[in-house]
Description:
Elements: H1 8-15, H2 20-29, H3 32-41, E1 46-47, H4 48-55, H5 59-71, E2 75-80, E3 85-90, H6 92-95, H7 98-111
Antiparallel strand pairs: 1-3, 2-3
Amino acid sequence: MASTQEPAEDAVAQKNEGVCPVVEAVDEIGSQWRLIVLHDLAESEKRFNQLKRSTGASSRTLSRVLDDLEEAELVNRRVEDKPIATYYSLTEKGQALQPVFSELEEWSTNWS
């Protein structure tokens, strides 16, 4: 005998359908270090050591975060040969987050 009820997982997914894009966005940019790096790169392109100094992140943490952001297509990596240097900047996708950060900052100022 077939059940006419939806499985519990489908019911939960259906109830949260409108929230899913927000959850996906937070998953992509949501860690503290990712937000710090994205905010820091909004000013300009920076070298690894500049980011390390300005964010206070350890080399290991910063390297991992930059790899994650590059994989998510939020950050570009540019390597120069002379002198050897690696530069990081926001992609168009990363730049598109800046109004969102401004709104969150305003919300935090008003409500925190």
